[in-house]
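Table S2 (continued). Query chain:
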Amino acid sequence: MKDHHDLPLSFWVTHWIRFICMIVLVVSGFYIAQPFIMSDADLSAPVNFLQAKIRFWHVLLGMILLGATLFKTYLFFFSKGSEIERKSFNNVLSAKQWASRIIFYLTLGGKVKDYGLYNPLQFVVYLGVYIALYGIIITGFVLFMNCYHDGMMGVIYPFFKPLETLMGGIANVRWIHHLLTWVFLLFLPVHIYMASMKYLFKTSYEKAHS
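Corresponding output:
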């Protein structure tokens, strides 16, 4: 079983790029929705444009997030270094794997056997996170194309406009975008806790995996 520390560099680069992007996007997104700071008022000339600056960084980090997510998706399906991730799908189909993992998480007891990188619970949760990730990117594009109609947004407008209609209009798109933000805010502490279990409960973890 390959340890997380033995994974290829591309795994960790895309992981931390997306993490940094999401943190900045969450903070800037909450600001865009409800501005909570203001620059010094200068009524002589409209040159502060703090909202515009925050929106610029939000869009820029959103584009970087899209690139990193597409690259990681490609690696998952086609990279030799991600073969151990693909093998994890077999765990989802194993009732024994599900039972042993649920027992371990509830009681810190029993015996578990690792096949691939992710256990079935991890695989299903990460799949859901990726669906939410692409969902928040798509809704972000729909929101942005209604503010900027040239360049890339002008190209994708005819393709994404039906999605806006399908979701019930721009107000619903904005609501879905915010709802998906909370998916990541709820996932993050759980992810950190679960990733730290081998250190928090070292004795039980090693006994279960022996």
